[in-house]
Amino acid sequence: MDEELINLADTARIFQYHKTLIDRYGTGTTRALGWPKIEGQWARFDKLSQIGDLSGHSVLDAGCGHADLFPFLKKRFSSFTYYGCEQIPELLQVATQRYKRETNVSLLQGDFLNSTMPVTDFVLASGSLTYRHMDDKFVYNAIETLFANCRIALGFNLLSGGVEASTLLRAYQPDDILNFCRTLSKTVQLQVGYWPDDFTVFVYKD
């Protein structure tokens, strides 16, 4: 199977995964995004927000879902420009309805790895890299692509455990991810201990 067909198959599984969650838990819910508990979502957002002072900067939320990261950041930073990218229409529709009156919010539909995304100061990815892919190099290619798209730093979280092999989600060894990120930058930080089976990595431009 060639790379294009692999990507299409992976995308189809992700779409079906969220359609099933939306049908089961309702449009606009945290569970529709794949978060079992809203506290876990907030814990991940809180850790990502520690990447630096986002005030006055531009931020790309790669795989933004309902764009819930925006109001979280709005409480902590001022005068920042938020770009949210989401490929699943049902999720993006919720985000658009919620934040259509926000002048500093731009919501884009598409795959943040294949579409032409704006280059921003910071790129954040919460949960959007945790899906299982047929290409074992997916996560590394994604990290490299997102890092190339930022001016200051990339922050992302991944699962380190608690995942059954039959699910669409995948866990990673933090050291493997950390070692790869060190091939991209001399300034890399690993964050753990804020939520079970989860870790966050900050990668800064040298």
Uncertain runs are: 1-6
Structural class: alpha/beta
Helix content: 25-40%
What name does CATH use for the topology?
A: Rossmann fold
- What string, H for helix and E for strand, traces the elements in order? HHEHEHEEHEHEE
- Cα(first) to Cα(last) distance is 38 Å
Mean pLDDT: 88
**Biggest sheet overview:** 7 strands, mixed
Spatial order of strands in the largest sheet: 3-2-1-4-5-7-6
The CATH architecture comes to 3-Layer(aba) Sandwich
Shape: globular
- In terms of DSSP E residues, the strand content is 15-25%
Counting H and I runs of at least 4 residues, what is the number of helices?
A: 6
Description:
With 206 residues, this protein is α/β, with parallel strands linked by helices. The chain has a single domain (36-204), classed as 3-Layer(aba) Sandwich (Rossmann fold), CATH 3.40.50.150. 34% of the residues lie in helices and 22% in strands. It is built from 6 helices and 7 strands, in the order H-H-E-H-E-H-E-E-H-E-H-E-E. It has helices spanning 3-25, 38-48, 69-74, 89-99, 138-148, 174-181, and strands at 58-62, 81-86, 105-109, 120-126, 150-159, 187-191, 198-204. A 7-stranded mixed beta sheet has the order 3-2-1-4-5-7-6, with helices on both faces. A hairpin with a 6-residue loop joins strand 6 and strand 7. The longest helix has 23 residues, at 3-25.
